[in-house]
Amino acid sequence: MLRTYDEAIDWIHSRLRLGVKPGLKRMEWLLSKLDNPERRLKSIHVGGTNGKGSTVTYLRSVLNAAGYQVGTFTSPYIEEFNERISINGKPIDNEEILSLVNVIKPLSDELEGTELGAPTEFEVITAMAFYYFGAVRHVDFTIFEVGLGGRFDSTNCITPLASIITNVGMDHVQILGSTIKEIAYQKAGIIKKEIPIFTTSQNDDALTVLHAEANLQNAPLYRLGKDFFISDYQPLTAGEQFTFRFDARFLKNLQISLLGKHQTENAAGALAVLLYLQEKGLIQLEEDQIYSGLKAAYWPGRFECLNKNPFIFIDGAHNVEGMQAFKTAMQTHFPNMKITIVFAALKDKDLTEMFTVLNEMNANIYLTEFDFPRAATATELKEKSGNKTVVAESNWKKLMEHLIVSQLKEEILAVTGSLYFISEVKPYLIKLIDEQQENSTNGSD
């Protein structure tokens, strides 16, 4: 038995050595030993390439505004490990993590001795979440974010009330496939028999695959632009505004606080699911709760503003689609401002295409690296960039210190790329910002 939170976290992270092992057999074995807690949950399943985390937070925030207790399972974490298993947006505490690990670890050891082999880190954490929400802490609803793909993802052991696939793009091609259709096939694996599936995808190849799988499962398919709609989009100083329609329901001038037009699509997908559940009598939802819940939704690391004077943003644009959304949001909200971008990424991403987008932004670009097994070095990124003007600096802390001190009031500093990098850099950036503000205050005394 492990005795401390740190021991529990070390044990979980030790599973990283096992890498990714697609398949549900190990999860089914673990859940059977736990008396199948996932069967006691009222869940919503969220898959897709980009926008999963934001969609989760829109769903959770509106349900919270309606008075429901909501458990969420998300990945990766941005500020602390515990946020992966949260209730009403609040991470569970260290003692609960330790308790859950002490339930799962003996089963993990037993499973390792079978022909199925040891469970991965993600399988262990997913089992912890299923057990917590199904056997330890009752909530009204749970929302599970797919980790990778969908068809063979550890979360795909639930039978949800509804599922949503945000979009389908080129990511994790070594595992999911080298074409949109192949990747869409994996994403479509979360479609369950006769369970409604919602999608905000606009890609024809992906939609063909999703439609075929929905027909196979006799699952109603609801599509953005065909069954639910966005109109009257308007960027705001601190967010976005839009009108939403689903069947005969019109919701005018909805506002969200997350920046980027793509966030209106994520919000629309979440709204379509919620209005469907309301129509089926599964939730009670007032119109004012929709408005307040959407506006209150917050998700760390997604075009998150850490400082306003001068502007400092972090954004986990970890693939081509994410980088394009980052570029569009910057150009929409800050069309005439000077931009400095710090970028770090994993080497297994489509870096050439990501740099195509980055290089179009007319920004000062700095490339750096961080301590992670699959992270690209600053030198590797520069070679991939095709841009002679970019600056490579391997020490990201040194780079941040220099940029924070030298930043002018009319400039924007944006740190983007891998979510793992964002989670590492965010607390350090906040510390630097606080120190800079303290120095400015002392200097004006």
Number of strands: 17
Percent of residues in helices: 40-55%
Structural class comes to alpha/beta
Kindly, what is the distance between the CA atoms of the first and last residues, rounded to a whole number of angstroms?
55 Å
Which stretches of 5+ consecutive residues score pLDDT under 50?
A: none
Which descriptor suits the 3D outline? globular
Strand order of the largest sheet: 4-3-2-5-1-6-7-8
Number of helices: 15
The number of distinct structural domains comes to 2
CATH superfamily of the largest domain: Mur-like, catalytic domain
Integer average pLDDT? 94
The largest pleated sheet is described as: 8 strands, mixed
Here the CATH topology of the largest domain equals: UDP-N-acetylmuramoyl-L-alanine:D-glutamate ligase
- How much of the sequence lies in strands comes to 15-25%
CATH architecture of the largest domain: 3-Layer(aba) Sandwich
CA radius of gyration: 22 Å
How would you explain this protein's 3D organization?
The chain is α/β, with parallel strands linked by helices. It folds into two domains: 5-296, UDP-N-acetylmuramoyl-L-alanine:D-glutamate ligase (3-Layer(aba) Sandwich), CATH 3.40.1190.10; 304-444, Alpha-Beta Complex (Protein-Tyrosine Phosphatase, Chain A). The chain contains 15 helices and 17 strands. Helix 2 packs across helix 4 (94-112) and helix 14 runs parallel beside helix 15. It starts with a helix and ends with a helix.
